[in-house]
Structures are given as C-alpha cells and as structure tokens.
Automatic annotation (TrEMBL):
GO terms for molecular function: AMP nucleosidase activity. This is AMP nucleosidase. Pfam families: Lysine_decarbox. It comes from Polynucleobacter wuianus. InterPro entries: LOG_fam (IPR031100), LOG_family_nucleotidases (IPR052341). One of its GO terms (cellular component) is cytosol. Its EC number is 3.2.2.4. It comes from the Bacteria. It catalyses: AMP + H2O = D-ribose 5-phosphate + adenine. SUPFAM superfamilies: MCP/YpsA-like (SSF102405).
Length: 285
C-alpha cells in the first residue's frame, strides 16, 4: 500500500485563483503564443513560484522608493480590537448577557486600539519636523483591521503617509481605509510580506495579539538574535499581557536564550513610552 503523502503542502496560487488543470495545459496556439508576462495561467504554475517570489519582493520595493519611504516603524497586534467609540456602541446596544460580556471585553481592549492610534499620530507629528524624506519614519502595518487599522489611522489623521502590507486569506482581509493611496500592497506569500516588514523597519511595536502577532514578533527576535539584521528596538506594549503570555526571564534562566537577547526588548504601557524608546535609541530631537 502506497503512503498517501502530499506532493505539496502549500495552497498554490493556482488553487487561490481557482485555475483548473485544463486552463494550465496551453494545448492550442492561442495560449502558447501569449507573452509569458501576460499569461496568468503560465505565471501561476508551480514551476514559476520563484518568479512570483521575486515579483512580490520587487513591486513594493520599487513603489516605496518612488514614494520616498526609507524608514518605517512596523506595528503588530490583534485584528480583533476596535475603537472606544465602536465598543461603547456595542455596550449600549447589547441585549443578552453574552452580548454584554463581549461588549465589555471589547471596551476594555479598546485601550490598545486607542494607544496604537495615538502612537501613529506621535510618529506622524515627528515627521512634520523633518524636512528630508530620508529622516522620516513611517507607520507600516499588515494593512488589516484592529491594531493595524489603529496605527494607520493615527498617522493618516495627522496627515502622514502610512503603509499597509495586506495578505490574501481564506476569509479575505480587506485593507483598512487609513492607508495612503499607492501604499496599500497585497501579498500571497507570508514569507515575502515578512521580509518587507523588516527591510526598512527601524523599530517594531507589538501590541497584544494572537498567533499572527506572535509569529511576526518571534521572527523579528530570531533575526536579531542570529544577527541577520542589525539590532533594533522591539517594543512590547502592555506589560501584564506580555509577562503573562511569555516569561522571557524564565527563558534566560532556563538557558534557552541569553541575557544579551533581551537587550532589544522594551516593555511599555503607553504610546508615549513606546515613542520615547525610539527617540532615545536613535537620539531623535
């Protein structure tokens, strides 16, 4: 009996685009005669995955340079947090005990949304004091709702450029409305999206979040630990959450990380404290 091992454990772009085997065959001249760069079916083949990787790396790189974006602050956090205003509406409109409990939790967690919104505004306000584009720091997020929306919103409301790196998901994640025109990008591959999170990042600010936020955070910490990138400040907002979720000091005591690995990690409570860490790290005026 042959083992039923998968030939590929990835959701390929052909499956994402719902292309069928018959569409990939190119049996007639109408298909084979197309320019390669104009042939969606050909570009979606498994053999061309390297080309798609290169395109997802290159497109944002070129467009960000055209917009003068050289330095970013990447903000991570839960997609589930909402603004205080929306949470207060939920509390007011709750009709059942379950709805009331969920609304109260949303109101409690809205403090993180408002903090990320304030942080985005603080960064934008700093940029107004800088004449050269090369001296500015721009808010960069995953482009979706929650903390991502809040950070983009704070910068947008203060009149600054703000960036969103969205990702294709089974339940499609739509870009939030606070990303600047021309700076909203869509990725299929998480790996390429993560590269762009880091390529221009001069700091990471992480709010409470779930699997995705932890994945992104520990990817950054691993890159710093292994010296694949220069050491940058990694700022964790919400001391209680982070200390309950991850006992970094116990990891040091257990010997699985070194004390030196903690040098880039900063625990803060407020947006102002997060911004102060960055100011002091880079000696910003």
């Amino acid at each position: 009996m042959s083992p039923k091992l998968p030939t590929n454990n990835a959701q390929t772009i052909t499956e994402f685009l719902n292309l069928h085997k018959t569409q990939m065959a190119e049996d007639d001249s109408a298909d084979s005669y197309k320019f390669a760069f104009d042939d969606e079916a050909f570009l979606s083949r498994r053999e061309t995955i390297g080309i798609r990787f290169e395109l997802e790396l290159l497109k944002p790189e070129i467009l960000l340079k055209e917009h003068g974006i050289e330095h970013t602050i990447t903000v991570f956090g839960s997609t589930r947090f909402i603004s205080r205003e929306r949470a207060e509406v939920q509390v007011r409109d709750a009709k059942t005990s379950g709805e009331s409990e969920a609304a109260k939790k949303a109101l409690l967690h809205s403090q993180y949304y408002e903090s990320a919104r304030e942080f985005g505004s603080l960064v934008a306000q700093y940029n107004t004091t800088q004449k050269q584009a090369a001296d500015k720091l721009h808010i960069c997020t995953g482009g979706g709702p929650g903390i991502m929306e809040a950070a983009n919103r704070g910068a947008f409301e203060s009149g600054d450029k703000t960036i969103g790196f969205n990702i294709s998901l089974p339940r499609e994640q739509h870009p939030n409305p606070y990303i600047s025109p021309g700076l909203s990008f869509r990725f299929h591959y998480f790996a390429l999206r993560k590269m762009h999170f880091m390529l221009r990042a001069r700091a990471i600010v992480a709010y409470p979040g779930g699997f995705g936020s932890f994945d992104e955070l520990f990817e950054v910490l691993t890159l710093i630990q292994t010296k694949k990138v220069v050491c940058i400040p990694v700022i964790l907002v919400g001391k209680t959450f982070w200390n309950e979720m991850v006992n970094f000091n116990q990891m040091v005591q257990f010997g699985v990380i070194d004390e030196a690995d903690m040098k880039s990690i900063h625990f803060v409570e407020t947006a102002q404290e997060a911004w102060k860490v960055i100011q002091e790290w880079y000696q910003l005026a």
